[in-house]
Design a protein that fits this description.
Length: 250
């Protein structure tokens, strides 16, 4: 794992965007794995600025998102498809048919998961996967206890995660109870991983991640120990606890 320390959120976002832009420059047909949440919003803003000023094109790029809530129509403002439209897709030239998210409105969710894995396979796999991290170490919606051998699957969200995400909804009760998420196996199959973290509330998870030497299913992000190409970009605040603990050298 490579660690890039940044002064703040803006610098984290700019460096993350540079990684994405470089991946697209070296392969204009790159498959980019996208995440939702507050963490990648600044990265998406930096990608839009770059697209406007320097013309990086997404015409041949494909994107696959990590997860989607079950039961929200894709046009629901809280669906992750709407999130991606608002924060990125509306402002770049990515063809709509190139943007993949799990189809969480299918009555047969298991089939939706199978189809998502098949779509990723047909795209030739993910070249660069962007990840945020949950306070409990979840990546995508792979909560503590998820088997690291799982591909795309249905998850019941923990109360902790529903509470953390309730800020986007009118009330906690409106936060869906289930989601479809790529599994840890999908994440480990991507060619490069870029994990982003900022702020004090991620300090514990980041410290635990940096101290992880063995994969441990009670802390999903520790699976990244098994991946040969992981870059963590974290700001000073997210690193406060990691700095206090003895950790491997990066
Ligand atoms: C959600 C998403 C994750 C994301 C996490 C952290 O649960 N499914 O992919 O990484 O929240 O979100 P935030 O970036 O808002 O802290």
């Amino acid at each position: 794992m490579k660690l890039i320390r940044t002064k703040n959120y803006e610098e984290m976002s700019r460096i993350a965007a540079d990684h994405v832009i470089n991946a697209i420059k070296s392969n204009p047909r790159a498959v980019i794995g996208l995440a939702t949440g507050d963490t990648p919003v600044g990265t998406y803003e930096a990608l839009i600025r770059d697209h406007n000023h320097y013309g990086t094109s997404y015409k041949q790029v494909h994107t696959v998102n990590l997860d989607e809530y079950i039961g929200l129509d894709k046009n629901d403002p809280n669906s992750y498809r709407s999130f991606m439209k608002t924060h990125l897709f509306h402002a770049i030239d990515l063809p709509e048919s190139h943007a993949f998210l799990p189809n969480s409105m299918m009555t047969d969710s298991e089939e939706a998961c199978r189809q998502y894995d098949e779509s990723i396979r047909q795209l030739g796999g993910v070249d660069l996967q962007i990840l945020g991290i949950g306070q409990n170490g979840h990546i995508g919606f792979n909560e503590p206890g998820s088997s690291f051998s799982m591909t795309t699957h249905v998850v019941e969200l923990t109360q902790n995660t529903r509470q953390a995400n309730a800020r986007f909804f009118k009330q906690l009760e409106d936060v869906p109870t289930h989601a479809i998420t790529m599994g840890i196996k999908n994440i480990l199959e991507s060619r490069c991983v870029l994990l982003l973290a900022f702020g004090h509330n991620k300090a514990e998870a980041v410290a635990q991640l940096l101290a992880s030497e063995q994969p441990d299913e009670t802390f999903p992000a520790s699976a990244l120990c098994l991946h040969p190409s992981v870059t963590i970009i974290a700001d000073e605040e997210a690193l406060v606890l990691a700095d206090k603990q003895e950790r491997r050298s990066f």
